[in-house]
Design a protein that fits this description.
Keywords: DNA-binding, Transcription, Transcription regulation. The chain is α+β, with helices and mostly antiparallel strands and 236 residues long. The chain is built from 6 helices and 13 strands. 23% of the residues lie in helices and 33% in strands. The longest helix has 14 residues.
Length: 236
């Protein structure tokens, strides 16, 4: 029995997803033209356009100006956060890729809800913030932030977060929190995702505590979900 053709944009999008999953379109492969797809599914070109938009927003397809629409590819870099953020460049080099990073800059800001929770302070408390944009092969892939209480107005270095201290107490304990979400507006700009809707980010917070169990700082790595695979545990 022949299955009926989908008549809605969502139905066509689901059918194209199935074609990709079955191998009819390989990663990086070009999608058929709008006219051809309209003929194949027996719908208007507007329905095809809307279906393609849904798939772009879902991270399945990507448009290239003047070339067409292609199945989106995902080229992952392996990152092991449990080895320490300072080892990031070494991990990138070990995989035959080229790391680069902008110099970190430090400012004083008011703690938002997450930072206040991590540092166990009131929302709006002044905190020192160091931030750095990291790239792989020239492409921005990670934003790294370090937050510490703004005691004396000096922030801790984002390049050596494990040495962050408060009141002279070294961090000897830590807690890690991982969240997956869609990027904020400023993250879309930093990661150049304006033409890549549907790209999630992972947020990895590493909260360090002193001998008195009080937080002494938190390092937050926000990473493009289409470029980095986060790995924990024993290395092969």
């Amino acid at each position: 029995m022949t299955r009926p053709k989908p008549q809605t944009a969502r139905g066509v999008a689901a059918a194209i997803r199935a074609q990709i999953a079955s191998g009819d379109y390989a990663p990086g492969g070009q999608l058929a033209s709008t006219a051809k797809l309209a003929s194949e599914f027996q719908v208007s070109e507007k329905v095809i356009y809307n279906a393609i938009t849904l798939l772009k927003d879902g991270g399945v397809l990507v448009g290239r100006q003047g070339l067409g629409v292609f199945v989106r590819t995902y080229d992952y870099l392996e990152w092991r956060p449990d080895t320490g953020h300072a080892d990031w460049a070494g991990q990138v080099l070990a995989q035959g890729r080229i790391p680069s990073a902008f110099d970190p800059r430090t400012t004083t800001e008011e703690a938002d809800a997450d930072v206040a929770r991590w540092l166990n302070v009131d929302e709006g408390t002044p905190v020192a913030v160091s931030r750095q944009l990291r790239c792989v092969d020239g492409e921005p892939v990670q934003l790294l932030f370090h937050y510490a209480l703004d005691e004396g107005g000096a922030g801790a270095s984002v390049t050596e977060p494990d040495e962050a201290t408060r009141d002279g107490t070294s961090a000897d304990d830590e807690e890690q929190e991982v969240t997956t979400r869609m990027p904020a507006i400023e993250e879309v700009a930093s990661f150049e995702l304006e033409d890549l809707p549907g790209t999630p980010v992972s947020q990895h917070a590493r909260i360090r505590r002193g001998a008195d169990e009080e937080p002494v700082g938190v390092t937050v790595a926000i990473t493009r979900g289409d470029r980095v695979r986060i790995v924990y545990g024993r290395e092969p």
